[in-house]
């Protein structure tokens, strides 16, 4: 059956044809062995348009020869006829076979969906109609119960679109230059080998000339050839020498130019600003925690700490199990948010106090030097002075005094190298740029921190009254001399192992006067009944080695002095021969004494006998003795924010004591790493942080967390 349209064209539907992938590929001798090797040629009958798509040019040319143009109209050969005549085609084709017409049909590919929009409506007769109706009913109930329900909150927000701004920048005109050079191949060769070629010396040149002249020549042509070759050799050698000298001169000029750039003041200033920016980016979270500011977290950068916290939370959730998590979520769904906030505050209050390490002031220059003392600048609370020196005589080496800034915790701002170990230092209040440094050999030096020069501004080496023992403590003290009409003046006070407390006069040179010569005192031992009186032992020295001192916070005319004997003497600046009081309680050298800044009648002392004692100035009997571990106590300091809190530096750990909580055990204990000793402590003046120095040259900065300071700044009476 055939179907024709109005114009007489054959529009009969044809069957779709798909090539068989398992068809056998024909050998070279077989022309039409498989339909897979036919060219895709389609031709419509009765005047229909023809289309030709060729896969292989060879097959298409063979088909064109097999089909005659006159027999193409009205003749159709099916695929079955072609396949059925495979064996016949193997023979030599006849003229009729060549004139027969072959029709090949094109097939459509599978439909490719570019856009698929699922329907939002479902037929009532579909299988999912019941489920969708139930879902719509639940949503309608939720919308009905939404007004007045606490579980639904409506929020609106309006975003302000920033106004576009045009920013213009004006810069200097860029000058362009074109430079060119013509270079030959032999110039390149000579330039690369100029450094390896050494010019011949005069002696070698004369020897070579003599050797050439002594040779006999037989012919005139030979003489001419020899002279010509010698001229060319001398010319090439002189050319290479001149080129090498030019290259060396250019290299020297480039080095001088680069050195001038590196040493220029503008370049150094730019490097300084770049270093500040880098340090701010690296230490921003830690500096914010130090200053008690909120920490800014970049959304694009995920820190290691956040990843660690997330991993710990996931591990905890896996351990508790899904059932427990489901129950907790159900409980939290019915808890009021205000109750949750109160619970979180209670948990923070219950959390134990601890020390959180922020960073350390350390570098390659300070490694191996023990931290002996620390002091804040009186004007700039971000500037810290650290002294490096050993306390033991066998471990003495050259010392350092470094000024560290919070803006660069990785390298000190100023470095002052000393010939002897630094044992004490302090900033001046009247002249904040002056830093006084005491050393192990007894000398005192004053440095100017504003200057980049590490030379001392003043030195006590020329003074006839300089100390003969280590200067264990040094401090600038303001004294009120209103009675004499001078007002407040600042004095530099030192205590040394030679038994002298001295006041240094800072003028054109350093000179000192003695405030007190600490004399040895005999220990008062009670005799047992019937015991004979023992003879007193002869003293090697009449003076006792001074270890530390501290002036009264209100009346700077009085001060305490700790000695190597274990005694603490209360002295007056008006009397240099007699002690006002003597406090006996320690069995070893007293390393530090400190007045309470709020209750000025109380003071603390620490010693090598492992103990810390709280004293009242009106009583020679200790009020409290703190001894938590068998270790030497090197340093103590009261907190500047509470009269109950103080910090101690022991050999193996740092302790924070809070007398309002306990007088038996410290509230915080931070242990040192192996082969490390803590030597000094210092509270930050404007934040809740503690600085700890150790024997390896590191100054650790710790944040005091969950340590609530009492409201009262007065110590309660202790019975």
UniProtKB/TrEMBL annotation:
Residues 84-95 have a biased composition (Basic and acidic residues). Residues 225-245 have a biased composition (Low complexity). Keywords: Cell projection, Cilium, Cytoplasm, Cytoskeleton, Flagellum, Repeat, WD repeat. Pfam families: WD40. Residues 1-22, 69-95, 200-252 are annotated as: Disordered. It is found in: Cytoplasm, Cytoskeleton, Flagellum axoneme; Dynein axonemal particle. One of its GO terms (molecular function) is dynein heavy chain binding. PANTHER family: DYNEIN AXONEMAL INTERMEDIATE CHAIN 4, DYNEIN INTERMEDIATE CHAIN. This is Dynein axonemal intermediate chain 4. It comes from Smutsornis africanus (Double-banded courser).
């Amino acid at each position: 059956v055939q179907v024709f349209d109005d114009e007489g064209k054959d529009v009969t539907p044809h069957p779709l044809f798909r090539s068989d992938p398992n068809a056998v590929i024909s050998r070279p001798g077989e022309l039409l062995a498989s339909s897979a090797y036919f060219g895709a040629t389609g031709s419509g009958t009765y005047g229909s348009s023809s289309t030709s798509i060729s896969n292989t040019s060879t097959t298409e040319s063979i088909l064109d020869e097999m089909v005659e143009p006159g027999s193409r109209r009205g003749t159709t050969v099916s695929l079955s006829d072609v396949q059925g005549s495979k064996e016949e085609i193997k023979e030599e084709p006849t003229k009729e076979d060549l004139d027969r017409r072959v029709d090949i049909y094109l097939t459509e590919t599978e439909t490719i969906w570019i856009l698929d929009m699922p329907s939002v409506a479902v037929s009532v007769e579909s299988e999912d109609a019941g489920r969708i109706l139930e879902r719509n009913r639940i949503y309608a109930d939720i919308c009905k119960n939404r007004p007045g329900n606490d579980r639904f909150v409506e929020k609106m927000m309006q975003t302000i679109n920033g106004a576009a701004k045009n920013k213009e920048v004006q810069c200097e005109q860029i000058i362009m230059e074109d430079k060119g050079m013509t270079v030959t191949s032999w110039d390149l060769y000579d330039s690369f080998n100029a450094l390896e070629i050494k010019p011949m010396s005069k002696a070698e040149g004369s020897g070579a000339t003599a050797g050439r002249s002594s040779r006999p020549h037989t012919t005139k042509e030979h003489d001419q050839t020899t002279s010509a070759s010698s001229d060319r050799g001398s010319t090439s050698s002189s050319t290479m020498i001149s080129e090498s000298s030019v290259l060396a001169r250019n290299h020297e000029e480039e080095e001088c130019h680069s050195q001038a750039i590196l040493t220029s003041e503008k370049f150094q200033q730019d490097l300084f600003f770049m270093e500040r920016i880098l340090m701010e980016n690296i230490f921003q979270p830690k500096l914010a925690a130090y200053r008690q500011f909120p920490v800014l977290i970049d959304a694009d950068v995920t820190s290691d700490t956040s990843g660690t916290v997330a991993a710990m939370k996931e591990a905890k959730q896996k351990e508790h199990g899904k059932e427990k998590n489901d129950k907790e979520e159900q409980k939290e769904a019915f808890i009021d948010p205000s109750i949750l906030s109160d619970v979180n505050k209670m948990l923070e209050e219950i959390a134990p106090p601890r020390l959180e390490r922020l960073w350390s002031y350390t570098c390659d220059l300070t490694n191996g030097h023990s931290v002996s003392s620390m002091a804040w600048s009186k004007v700039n609370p971000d500037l810290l002075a650290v002294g490096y020196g050993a306390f033991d005589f066998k471990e003495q080496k050259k010392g350092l005094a470094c000024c560290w800034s919070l803006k660069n915790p990785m390298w000190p701002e100023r470095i002052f190298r000393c010939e002897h170990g630094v044992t004490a230092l302090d900033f001046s209040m009247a002249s904040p740029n002056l830093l006084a440094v005491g050393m192990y050999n007894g000398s005192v030096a004053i440095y100017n921190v504003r200057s980049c020069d590490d030379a001392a501004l003043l030195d006590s080496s020329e003074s006839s009254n300089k100390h003969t023992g280590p200067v264990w403590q040094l401090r600038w003290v303001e004294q009120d001399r209103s009675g004499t009409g001078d007002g407040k003046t600042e004095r530099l006070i030192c205590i040394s192992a030679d038994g002298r407390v001295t006041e240094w006069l800072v003028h054109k040179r350093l000179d000192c006067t003695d405030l007190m010569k600490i004399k040895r005192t005999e220990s008062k031992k009670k005799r047992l009944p019937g015991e004979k009186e023992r003879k007193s032992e002869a003293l090697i020295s009449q003076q006792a080695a001074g270890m530390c001192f501290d002036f009264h916070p209100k009346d700077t005319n009085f001060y305490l002095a700790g000695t190597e004997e274990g005694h603490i003497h209360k002295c007056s600046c008006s009397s240099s021969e007699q002690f006002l009081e003597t406090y006996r309680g320690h069995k070893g050298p007293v390393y530090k004494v400190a007045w309470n800044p709020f209750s000025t009648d109380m003071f603390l002392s620490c010693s090598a006998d492992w103990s810390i004692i709280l004293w009242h100035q009106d009583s020679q009997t200790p009020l409290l003795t703190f001894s938590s571990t068998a270790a030497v106590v090197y340093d103590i300091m009261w907190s500047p924010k509470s009269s109950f809190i103080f910090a101690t530096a022991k050999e193996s750990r740092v302790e924070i004591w809070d007398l309002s909580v306990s007088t038996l055990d410290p509230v915080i204990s931070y242990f040192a790493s192996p082969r490390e000793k803590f030597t000094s402590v210092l509270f930050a003046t404007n934040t809740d942080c503690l600085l700890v120095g150790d024997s390896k040259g590191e100054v650790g900065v710790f944040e005091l967390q969950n340590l609530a300071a009492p409201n009262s700044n007065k110590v309660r009476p202790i019975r």
